[in-house]
Amino acid sequence: MAEARIRWIGGPVLHAVSEGAFQLGEAIEVGEAGLPGEVIRLRGREFVAQVYEDTTGLKPGDPVHGTGQPLSVPLGPGLLGNIYDGLLRPLSEERFVEGDDTESRFQPQVSEGDKVKPGQIYAQVTMHGLEEPCLVPPHVSGTVEEIAEEGKIDREQVLMVVRDDDDACHEVHLHNRWPVRRPRPVRDRLPGDRPLITGQRILDTLFPIARGSRAAIPGGFGTGKTVLQETLAKHAHADVIIYVGCGERGNEMAEVLNEFPDLTDPSTGRPLMERTVIIANTSNMPVAAREASIYAGVTVGEYFRDQGKHVALMADSTSRWAEALREVSGRLGELPAEAGYPAYLSSRLADFYERAARVTTLTGEEGSLTIIGAVSPPAGDFSEPVTSHTKRYIRCFWGLDKERAEARFYPAIHPLQSYSEDAEKFTGWWTEKGNSDWYRQRERLLTLLEREAHLQRMARIVGKDALPADQQLTLTCAQLVNEALLSQSAFSKTDRYCSPERQIEMLRLVIRFIDLAFEALERGADPDDIAGLSVYRRLQRMGEEIGEDEIERFDDLRSELDDQLGGLKARETQE
Ligand SMILES: Nc1ncnc2c1ncn2[C@@H]1O[C@H](COP(=O)(O)OP(=O)(O)OP(=O)(O)O)[C@@H](O)[C@H]1O
Fold first, then answer.
1. What CA–CA distance (Å, rounded) separates 365 from 298?
2. Which of 23, 251, 482, 545 has a 20 to 30 Å separation from 492 between CA atoms?
3. Cα separation of 50 and 332, whole Å?
4. Dist CA 504 CA 433 (whole Å)
5. Cβ-count burial of 41 within 10 angstroms (0-12 exposed, 13-18 middle, 19+ buried)?
6. 63 CB under 6 A from ligand 1?
7. pLDDT band at 284, cuts 50/70/90?
8. Is the model more confident about 339 or about 512?
9. Mutate to test the pocket of ligand 1, among 227, 387, 483 (most ligand atoms within 8 A of CB)
């Protein structure tokens, strides 16, 4: 392999003079310790590289070895349930799901002489108590020359040899490397068809995301990005969760690492870690590795998608990742663009988000990778470069609002600053679930919330009591929408997750309240009397009071609602 010598080194960036041919994007090993790095710029015999580990102690003259391969990560069974660094190296020997490594068992599903195709499952492996498929790597096809026997296997052993049509032999291992910056091939990309249910009412009901789509969660300091990402990781209806903690503070990541192994998947009752891969790259780890961690995460996501699974990737936070790009770019002496970020910030964001997709895999199955990235705009300013460029590539924008967070109104997603370009596709899905009115109800709520913002501005000037009765009632109804539907504590035992069935009931009750309240107003009822009804307070708290396994209790609430609002008379008639 090609060799070079360091000529200059500063932080994660080095310049080297090569004695052989290096390629752009080639993975390298730096110094005697062989620290991992990547060639990021080539000029004649000189190149610039970034190093993914602490470079303290490296000096001019130290050797750099080429690997001849692009930066890649090993993909295969055993990834689930563990925590990795930005280059997918396990951060801990301890595993977070039960089971014993020595019990790895290999069960071939093909025999010598069989034909295999890219992406095909050629064996099953049981590791750590989990059975996982072994896939033929995407660029391998041909006739099986050799296949390992059923039984115990060793991680490094060759499991299968495939001879292709050009007579070349390919060795297939348990883990096969894939370049992190290259999307894995698929047969077809498909449009999003059904929602990725998150269990969060404000998202599923107002701003739903399709499986295979992409969303951003921008929010200023302390507005709840991390809590929301973790809530999604715990409750989203996905087969596999990839959680990339990118440049967050070590203590925040430590919380995730401490908490996740103890959590149970609410839908299966199994440990949540069994379906989770965590990639941790905290702010004190080398900055270049942070840049790579996002691509490593997305590559792992695609690997599970290629097994016909529905995968959700949470990246917290893409701003820290963009800062890593900025730091490396600064050290390269590149001309800075907006806010010091490199001019290629936008294309790098595109490279990341565009890997989200619903696909037909190479073997004809359906899989999806949904990407949800948190953004931390300085001072919560959504016009800054990372947020504004991200907006170009995402379909759902879930903007967190400082005022809502300060009022401890969680999740602090602002309904008027957020949007979903996927929503229109889901009328059919909600109809199948039993709510053919969902899209119309959603539009009504959004219109009501817009009207609320307008009326609140007026009320601040003239006082709420000076508003006409119908406007006062509009504010009362909007408050109910906010408190009953949009507010949902991530820490509430009853309400941290809300199933689509429960969301339908709650949405219907709120809409019914609005309809009956305005009918009562027409009959001459007083808006204050409507807001003072005990059923109004019960509706505000229904998320906390009626859990997932007592959905029939919503019927009682509905009867109470009909009785109280139906019985409400004009004030004069009451007297
Ligand atoms: N959905 C929620 N339910 C209940 N409490 C929440 C919710 N979201 C946020 N909080 C509260 O707000 C606090 C701050 O949230 P979080 O750490 O997620 O903010 P952040 O935006 O990630 O912050 P930073 O900018 O520091 O990364 C949490 O510790 C929690 O008390």
1. 19
2. 251
3. 10
4. 9
5. middle
6. no
7. low
8. 512
9. 227
Residues 439, 510: Cα–Cα separation, whole Å = 15
CATH 2.40.110.20, domain 2-70, yes or no: no
For the entire predicted model, the pTM comes to 0.93
Ligand 1 atom closest to residue 223's alpha carbon, by position in its atom list: 21
Class of domain 100-175: mainly beta
Render pLDDT for 468-504 as a digit per residue (tens, 0 to 9).
999 999 999 999 999 999 999 999 999 999 999 999 9
Identical fold, 2-70 and 100-175: no
Q: Which residue has the higher pLDDT, 288 or 421?
A: 421
pLDDT at 259: 73
Is the Cβ atom of 320 under 6 angstroms away from ligand 1? no
The full DSSP string for 360-429 is E-TTS-EEEEEEEEEE--GGG-TTSHHHHHHHTT-SEE--B-HHHHHTT-SS-B-TTT-EESSGGGGHHH
What pLDDT sits at residue 306? 97
Q: What is the pLDDT of residue 468?
A: 94
Positions at the binding site for ATP: 219-226
Strand arrangement, sheet containing 105-108? 130-135, 121-127, 105-108, 151-152
Q: What pLDDT is recorded for position 128? A: 75
pLDDT of 414 higher than 70: yes
ipTM entry:
0.97
Q: Is 410 in the pocket of ligand 1 (CB under 6 A)?
A: yes
User: Which one is the CATH code of 437-567: 1.10.1140.10, 3.40.50.300, 3.90.180.10, 2.30.110.10?
Assistant: 1.10.1140.10
Least confidently predicted of 84-88, 193-197, 341-345, 534-538: 84-88
CATH architecture of 188-423: 3-Layer(aba) Sandwich (3.40)
Identify the pLDDT of residue 291: 83
pLDDT at 570 (0 to 100): 61
Helix (H) or strand (E) holding 13: strand 13-18
Residue 275 Cβ inside 6 Å of ligand 1? The answer reads no
Enumerate the domain spans of the chain.
2-70, 100-175, 188-423, 437-567
Within 8 A by CB and 6+ apart from 487, the residues are: 409, 410, 543
* Residue 219: its H or E element: none
